[in-house]
Request: fold
Amino acid sequence: MASLLIYCSTTYCPHGQVSDKCGVTLKSCRRQFDNIKRVFKSIEEMPGKYVSNVERHFGLSRALAEKYATVVFIASFRFEINKRKLNSLSFEAIKSVNF
Reply:
């Protein structure tokens, strides 16, 4: 899920190409993309920490809230992780910057 979340949040790409690249069904890809969009729109302007806001607002587990919060962090600050300098970073490394 983490690779799909990062890929969806940082790349404009038709869902079919994302689905093929990440090895998930198109239906799952669309659902995850819609979830990311919903979380992003809901918490980007909320005061407080992203993780706490996601946990509270959506009732998600801490681990899943951290993943969504990391994607919101990436999207909010418009990180282009496909660029050469950031391409080598893992999701966990980016997540550690967020916290």
